[in-house]
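Feature request disguised as a bug: please show the residue count (418) next to tRNA-uridine aminocarboxypropyltransferase in the output. Example input:
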Amino acid sequence: MSISVTSLTRALTGLKCSKYTFQFLRTTTTTHMAAPPTTTAALFLDSSSPSMEDSRRPPASVSLEEWQAWGTDSPIPTHVAEIVEEMIDLERESDAQMKFGGLGGKLKGNFKAQEDKKHRAKYKALDDSEQKLHFFSARQIACRLLGSRGYLCQKCWLPREDCMCSRVVPCDLWHRMRFWLYMHPKDFLRQNNTGKLLWQVFGINASKLCLFGIAEHEEIMWKEFMHSGRNNVWCLYPNKNAPTKSVEDSFAGYISNNLLYKPHQVICFNLSVLALHYILDIISISITLYVQTDAVETFNFILIDGTWSNSAAMFRRLKERADLIWGDDLPCISLTTGASAMHKLRPQPSWDRTCTAAAAIGLLDELHLVSQFNSLGLDKQAEAVENSVDLLLASLTARRLRMGRSINRRQRHHNDIC
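Example output, currently without the count:
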């Protein structure tokens, strides 16, 4: 069978390639190049080619599976879902395409101007400061969710070509310990954030994400705190307005036997006794035995994950909630940690301030030095987190060098905490 040149030309001319297909082909052949500067709300990367505008697919809503893949087991926050839908509707109604780019995946272009006008009017119409915080946080998170689709790995939050997940070695955290990553929305999906490493290493049950200003997340966290009691909740924060205790002072009184104790499972079984009664009538007796489990206390440690300028408001919110629930201040722990490996990329304002992962490492190391805790393997757990910090540093450094950027941050960014 023969095919004429004219027929082949006509067939190729009629073939339309979607923007996503074009971008996918382009990126798969350049995996070692720098990532595109902008992304869209749909599952494709932005292209400036005007010939593809007609084939652009509309963005999709955020599913529960997509939301939880970023590092949480919570439902999708109501306000986040609403803002995502509003942004999708705005793009559908306008002639501007949703584009993201720059640090934090911020909105760009004509769509930014339209969305900015709309969200500022909505924010201004809110009278209550709590409502304004909820709206601010939800919008920050919604933009990051949409701007990171198809670009960042959902586990390590790095560009897919720099994914470090295969090199992270998981580790079990001591069963009575739980970290709470109280994260500012502007640090959500941030590539050089180190708080994410805790659930990469220990899992999302041992290291829980709680987003500042997201009502559902904060309610989940405080419900757990109320169940555990004030004496089992600590915040790792240098509180200058209230006395803080060292790790040794806070835990020296615990009995080692209680620390090693693991809860028993409820044991249930049925014992059937068969007997012949008169004319082969079968009598079945069912006996169930229950072994009551003893309640085991969980130690909850709050790690404030945000810039130092943002952390003050976050800590104040924690204190206000603690006073409302317990009528008392939130217990704080001070650490004697030194410099983190991440300081090479993100200098800290002073030596008593460090990144989130380094704070967790310091806590585990200092707890291990308390005699009652030295048989729990906390030093090995600290080492696992430290190894993940080294991996993150190597990935970020390699990316910066590949893109021709300096690996040292200027001191003007000295107020950042990762």
